[in-house]
C-alpha cells in the first residue's frame, strides 16, 4: 500500500506544480455525465492516469472524467477510483480545490476500501492519507510530504456546510438545517467538497451535507470517487456518515461506477440529529 500511495503523492505533486500557472479555460466538449470540462480537469486526469499506470499494484483505474473503468494489469490487486480535480468550478476564483482517491481491493465496493487519500491545493499543499487512521501531511520546501498529525473528530462541531439548490430542498432538510443554525451553527460552504470536508475534519466537527433535491433525487456527489473515500476517512477519524436513512454511507452498494448518492458527513452529534430529523 505504501508503494501505491507514493505514486499518488507523485501525481498530486505534479498537479500542484501545474496549478501554479494553469490554463483555466474550458474545453468545448463535456464529459459523459454532461459536466463541462476544464482543460485542467483533463490535464489532471492525464497526470494521474500516466503516473498510476506505472504502479505494479494497480489493476484498474476509475476516473470521474472517464466513462469506463481502465484496465491496467489484470494480475494486480487494487482498483483506484479518483476525482482528478474536485471543486474545479472554483478554479476561476482561486479557491482551494483537491484530488480524491479511493483504493479498493479486487473490486470497487465500499466494503473493499483499503485506503483513501485526498489532496488540498490551497495556500499550502496538504494531503490526508488514511488506512487505519487519518493522517495529515504538508508539503515542505524539499517537495516532501511531512506528517503533521493524526486527525480526530470531536463529539460535536460548530459549522454547517450544506449544498444543493435550496429552492429544491425538501421540507425535512429545510427544517433540519434551520434547527442547526438556530442552535448556533455557522455557515461554511465553498463549493469544493474536498475543502469543505477538510475544514470539518481539521476543526474536529460540524456537518457537510449534499442532500437529495427535487432536481437531483439521488444527490449530486459520486459514490466511488467522492463519497466513499471521504466517508472512509471521516469514519476512521471517529466521525459518522449517512445517506439520511442509514447508519453509514459505507453500507451502500452500487453497480454503475458513476452512481450518485445523497450524503452527510459529520461528528456524532450532527449525524444523530440528522437521523432523528429524517427518519
Ligand atoms: P466536481 O467534481 O465536478 O468539482 O463536482 C463536485 C462538486 C463538489 O466538490 C461540491 O460539493 C459540489 O460539486 C458543489 O455543487 P453545488 O455547486 O451544487 O453546490
Ligand atoms: Mg468532485
Automatic annotation (TrEMBL):
<dbReference type="GO" id="GO:0006094">
    <property type="term" value="P:gluconeogenesis"/>
</dbReference>
<dbReference type="InterPro" id="IPR028343">
    <property type="entry name" value="FBPtase"/>
</dbReference>
<dbReference type="GO" id="GO:0005986">
    <property type="term" value="P:sucrose biosynthetic process"/>
</dbReference>
<feature type="binding site">
    <location>
        <position position="189"/>
    </location>
    <ligand>
        <name>substrate</name>
    </ligand>
</feature>
<comment type="similarity">
    <text>Belongs to the FBPase class 1 family.</text>
</comment>
<feature type="domain" description="Fructose-1-6-bisphosphatase class 1 C-terminal">
    <location>
        <begin position="155"/>
        <end position="278"/>
    </location>
</feature>
<feature type="binding site">
    <location>
        <position position="83"/>
    </location>
    <ligand>
        <name>Mg(2+) 2</name>
    </ligand>
</feature>
<dbReference type="InterPro" id="IPR033391">
    <property type="entry name" value="FBPase_N"/>
</dbReference>
<dbReference type="GO" id="GO:0006000">
    <property type="term" value="P:fructose metabolic process"/>
</dbReference>
<dbReference type="InterPro" id="IPR000146">
    <property type="entry name" value="FBPase_class-1"/>
</dbReference>
<dbReference type="GO" id="GO:0005829">
    <property type="term" value="C:cytosol"/>
</dbReference>
<feature type="binding site">
    <location>
        <position position="86"/>
    </location>
    <ligand>
        <name>Mg(2+) 2</name>
    </ligand>
</feature>
<feature type="binding site">
    <location>
        <position position="226"/>
    </location>
    <ligand>
        <name>Mg(2+) 2</name>
    </ligand>
</feature>
<dbReference type="GO" id="GO:0006002">
    <property type="term" value="P:fructose 6-phosphate metabolic process"/>
</dbReference>
<dbReference type="InterPro" id="IPR023079">
    <property type="entry name" value="SBPase"/>
</dbReference>
<dbReference type="GO" id="GO:0000287">
    <property type="term" value="F:magnesium ion binding"/>
</dbReference>
<keyword id="KW-0378">Hydrolase</keyword>
<keyword id="KW-0460">Magnesium</keyword>
<dbReference type="InterPro" id="IPR044015">
    <property type="entry name" value="FBPase_C_dom"/>
</dbReference>
<keyword id="KW-0479">Metal-binding</keyword>
<feature type="binding site">
    <location>
        <position position="83"/>
    </location>
    <ligand>
        <name>Mg(2+) 1</name>
    </ligand>
</feature>
<comment type="subunit">
    <text>Homotetramer.</text>
</comment>
<dbReference type="Pfam" id="PF18913">
    <property type="entry name" value="FBPase_C"/>
</dbReference>
<keyword id="KW-0963">Cytoplasm</keyword>
<feature type="binding site">
    <location>
        <position position="85"/>
    </location>
    <ligand>
        <name>Mg(2+) 1</name>
    </ligand>
</feature>
<feature type="binding site">
    <location>
        <position position="220"/>
    </location>
    <ligand>
        <name>substrate</name>
    </ligand>
</feature>
<feature type="binding site">
    <location>
        <position position="64"/>
    </location>
    <ligand>
        <name>Mg(2+) 1</name>
    </ligand>
</feature>
<protein>
    <recommendedName>
        <fullName>Fructose-1,6-bisphosphatase class 1</fullName>
        <ecNumber>3.1.3.11</ecNumber>
    </recommendedName>
</protein>
<dbReference type="GO" id="GO:0030388">
    <property type="term" value="P:fructose 1,6-bisphosphate metabolic process"/>
</dbReference>
<dbReference type="Pfam" id="PF00316">
    <property type="entry name" value="FBPase"/>
</dbReference>
<comment type="pathway">
    <text>Carbohydrate biosynthesis.</text>
</comment>
<keyword id="KW-0119">Carbohydrate metabolism</keyword>
<feature type="domain" description="Fructose-1-6-bisphosphatase class I N-terminal">
    <location>
        <begin position="28"/>
        <end position="132"/>
    </location>
</feature>
<dbReference type="GO" id="GO:0042132">
    <property type="term" value="F:fructose 1,6-bisphosphate 1-phosphatase activity"/>
</dbReference>
<feature type="binding site">
    <location>
        <begin position="86"/>
        <end position="89"/>
    </location>
    <ligand>
        <name>substrate</name>
    </ligand>
</feature>
